């Protein structure tokens, strides 16, 4: 769902930058108050995991489209909505600047569409109420907790991706992209992202169930006694498993990603070459809004993207994809650590001058 610059007019792009920046400021203030010593390594590892997961597109059967992990629900369940949002901002910014994934002018919109809904709406309206709710279930607490995790993951990912997809439609319409009739565009975008969201919900549930079994106190609002003593792992072990998973996903499984266009690209351009619908049938080389701001943003991206489209420039070698997955995961983890360290620094600085 990474939007390209051509889908946004400069005023709409600026408004989305302002909205995402406001959410980031609120999030930074909240992270500064966090005293949890496990937050720094957890934020680093889970951010890297989401980056790697986003590289693995999975096919949506019978459509000619594909989807990938968004990650907002996963991060907010493990880190809380504010730290989760900042992690997503780090991921999307690194994807944009270093891998030319998503437009620089559209970065504010992409942060809003892919991070705000999953982290804030998904957490406050779905994850927390479900995890704190009492279910009329017989049996062990662990079973009830597992059901809650699965339900919150499936509903959270499906609903928040619907909100993100609808925002894409709304933003392009407000930008005056006349080739995209609002009702038709929404009618294509919403169903495909429902399918993508349900699959993401299953992936999210699998990761969170592992965490709940191995180290339940890492899950927000979950019963910390949910994991049995025989299956509990140390924090280092649990995070090491997730870190290895990120490395395997980014460096290896990314090579198996579906070649089909993702839900947004599929909606815009179709996949007629593979025998599927043309959908809106836009020209991939000439569509959307042209602006000086978009041209300037593209020029910056050309200079900063050292692995454009997750590959070596002018090369189809799979090594470029593996290097992109490993390098990107490392960059995201390092940037997430810096965010946490900055939060701790400012907290100590305020205390020293208090």
Please give a structural write-up.
The structure is a single chain. With 354 residues, the chain is mainly alpha-helical. 65% of the residues lie in helices and 2% in strands. It is built from 11 helices and 2 strands, in the order H-H-E-E-H-H-H-H-H-H-H-H-H. The chain has helices at residues 10-32, 39-54, 72-79, 81-99, 107-132, 141-174, 182-214, 235-251, 263-269, 292-304, 318-352, and strands at residues 58-60, 65-67. It has a two-stranded antiparallel ribbon with strand order 1-2. Strand 1 (58-60) and strand 2 (65-67) form a beta hairpin. It starts with 9 loop residues before the first helix and ends with a helix. 48% of the residues are buried.
Global outline: globular
Element order: H for helix, E for strand: HHEEHHHHHHHHH
Q: Output the structural class.
A: mainly alpha
What portion of residues is helical? 55-70%
Query: Roughly what fraction of the amino acids lie in strands?
Result: under 5%
Spatial arrangement of strands, main beta sheet = 1-2
Provide key terms for this protein:
single chain; 354 residues; mainly alpha; 2 strands; 2% strand
In short:
The protein contains eleven helices and two strands. The protein is mainly alpha-helical and about 350 residues long.
Topology:
Blueprint: H1 10-32, H2 39-54, E1 58-60, E2 65-67, H3 72-79, H4 81-99, H5 107-132, H6 141-174, H7 182-214, H8 235-251, H9 263-269, H10 292-304, H11 318-352
Antiparallel strand pairs: 1-2
